[in-house]
Task: inverse folding
């Protein structure tokens, strides 16, 4: 008999072209609506700051603008046609773009250019010729617009130099195509670091913190910005280091003050110093691995302990189940044994196969076998009973009657998916549909800070069926 | 997270959006509506997303909410369990397609998140707003049902 596949990802096939286009066009429409809606003017202070920066030196305007006129032309066209609407471009728009390309030194065959401007071809033929020229340079026509043109010529935005970034986004703003003022690219002034110097400082800081060799450093490249934000309008450097060609996978991010001191911003940018970041990563890894390490190290020694537990690699949770549990035979997974008197044994979760109605247990037993992380609540946490009391009170304050609902108190530690440790109290409706199984319908959740007792949020769940 | 990175992240999750909405809604038009609304809400709230790694779970949660909204509104009035299963797409595994869609929703959704989207039970619990142990038991039950029905299908 053919085995049931483990990988079910092919069950529904792949998204068809229409669906993919639907997602892309929805995003483009959202961006377009926002650009039109959010035409905030720069604050007076910001305008003054930028003017001062520009006036302080002439270098800010000494841009190599020549050669980018065709990208600017594409931006002008984008004020008429949204990205994704190339199919609707007028012939005039296409010819304007091609003219601008030619003016910037991009080679357009004389014969083709004359044909576009002459009278020999029909309009349809001219459209086809223009399409051939443009797609010849920029690829697929459907999403041909200023951004894809810039990427085709300059590479991915992570590789753009400071001038390109500054010019591109400034020009977009001037044309009303980019309403986001929260991040503004700048150009360094005389006396400031150069882009290369900033990148070198960042690489040194990362090498020192993470112990990288010169060989490893050679594979790291910088996505470098000199910028201000609306929350912090003092210029800083941000260097995102990526490996080889993987521009979208930042390995390390370094913030520098204007004069090249490594700094950190735990707020809007969420960037820590390399040393701090290394510590955070190590702590996160240790937490993720700690429970597995315990079991693996002790597995052999504990196999004779007389009891068997099931290690579930999908969730890292350990279950205690009965000797004749069907899960033992069905699932061929690593097993380890724990002595009943061991501390780890007392913190095990119930096996889902053996204990069908765990949610109907007395609260104290449910709490004892909580399926959440394998660590004790903090010493400074309020007790589980107190958490439940707070949750019930919070629901009553909102006039939600939970007296007929079943409370389940769980807790979760802070990790990469949870910003904070918290109690999560679920309220569920329970009904028995048959002898084997209860229907548990989770209806509300109350999240509580375990230290301050503050109710963090109350919500309805979506996990019902 | 920059807007470009956010957009790129969303586009990379196109297959996920497809699979999750497909598991919830039978009609194509409903799926497109749900995805459109979910993207709109995600876009509006994108600046509140502080943890880049949470984009997938965050987006799926928004999408599941929208799917449930459509189901509740009764936009397509026929209850999911009563209509015939949609024909599997040409590149789909037809047997598994029908088996998964025939699962009751409370087993189907966790199964999709774990087996198709590669989530851990902790992530699925966060998305669904149910205890992690419940995710485990529902996924286990889903696996049991799928296996029984798979074997029945093989014998036919």
Result:
């Amino acid at each position: 008999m053919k085995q049931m596949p483990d990988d079910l990802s092919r069950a529904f096939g792949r998204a068809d072209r229409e669906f993919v286009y639907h997602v892309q066009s929805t995003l483009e429409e959202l961006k377009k609506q926002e650009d039109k809606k959010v035409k905030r003017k720069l604050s007076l202070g910001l305008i003054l700051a930028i003017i001062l920066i520009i006036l302080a030196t002439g270098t800010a305007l000494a841009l190599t603008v020549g050669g980018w006129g065709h990208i600017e032309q594409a931006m002008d066209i984008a004020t008429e046609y949204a990205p994704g609407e190339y199919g609707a471009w007028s012939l005039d728009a296409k010819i304007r773009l091609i003219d601008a390309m030619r003016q910037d030194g991009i080679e357009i065959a004389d014969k083709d250019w004359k044909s576009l401007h002459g009278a020999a071809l029909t309009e349809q033929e001219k459209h086809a010729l223009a399409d051939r020229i443009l797609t010849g340079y920029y690829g697929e026509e459907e999403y041909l617009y200023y951004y894809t043109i810039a990427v085709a010529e300059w590479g991915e935005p992570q590789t753009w130099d400071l001038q390109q970034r500054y010019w591109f986004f400034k020009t977009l703003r001037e044309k009303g195509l980019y309403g986001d003022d929260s991040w503004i690219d700048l150009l360094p002034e005389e006396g400031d670091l150069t882009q290369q110097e900033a990148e070198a400082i960042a690489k040194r800081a990362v090498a020192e913190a993470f112990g990288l060799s010169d060989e490893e450093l050679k594979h790291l490249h910088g996505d470098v910005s000199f910028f201000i934000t609306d929350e912090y309008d003092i210029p800083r450097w941000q260097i995102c280091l990526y490996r080889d060609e993987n521009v979208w996978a930042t390995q390390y991010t370094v913030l520098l003050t204007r004069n090249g001191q490594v700094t950190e911003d735990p707020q809007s940018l969420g960037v820590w110093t390399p040393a701090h970041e290394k510590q955070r990563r190590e702590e996160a890894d240790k937490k993720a691995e700690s429970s597995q390490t315990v079991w693996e190290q002790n597995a052999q020694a504990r196999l004779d302990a007389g009891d068997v537990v099931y290690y579930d690699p999908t969730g890292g949770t350990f279950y205690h189940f009965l000797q004749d549990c069907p899960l033992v035979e069905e699932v061929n997974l690593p097993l380890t044994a724990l002595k009943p008197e061991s501390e780890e044994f007392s913190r095990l979760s119930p096996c889902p196969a053996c204990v069908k109605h765990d949610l109907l247990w007395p609260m104290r037993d449910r709490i004892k076998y909580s399926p959440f992380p394998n660590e004790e609540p903090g010493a400074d946490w309020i007790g589980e009973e107190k958490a439940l009391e707070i949750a019930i009170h919070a629901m009553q304050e909102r006039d939600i009657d939970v007296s007929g609902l079943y409370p389940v108190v769980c807790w979760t530690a802070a990790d990469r998916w949870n910003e904070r440790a918290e109690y999560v109290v679920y309220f569920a409706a329970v009904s028995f549909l048959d002898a084997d199984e209860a229907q548990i319908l989770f209806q509300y959740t109350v999240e509580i800070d375990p230290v301050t007792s503050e109710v963090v949020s109350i919500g309805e769940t979506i996990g019902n069926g | 997270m920059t807007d470009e990175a956010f957009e790129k992240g969303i586009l990379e999750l196109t297959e996920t959006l497809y699979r999750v909405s497909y598991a919830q809604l039978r009609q194509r038009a409903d799926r497109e509506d749900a995805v459109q609304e979910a993207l709109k809400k995600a876009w509006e709230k994108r600046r509140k997303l502080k943890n880049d790694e949470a984009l997938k779970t965050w987006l799926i949660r928004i999408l599941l909410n929208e799917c449930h909204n459509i189901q509740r509104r009764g936009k397509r009035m026929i209850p999911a369990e009563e209509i015939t299963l949609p024909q599997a797409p040409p590149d789909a595994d037809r047997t598994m397609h029908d088996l998964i869609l025939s699962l009751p929703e409370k087993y189907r959704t966790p199964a999709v998140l774990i087996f198709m989207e590669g989530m851990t039970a902790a992530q699925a619990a966060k998305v669904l707003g149910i205890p992690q142990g419940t995710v485990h038991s529902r996924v286990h039950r889903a696996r049991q049902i799928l296996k029984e029905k798979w074997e029945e299908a093989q014998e036919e």
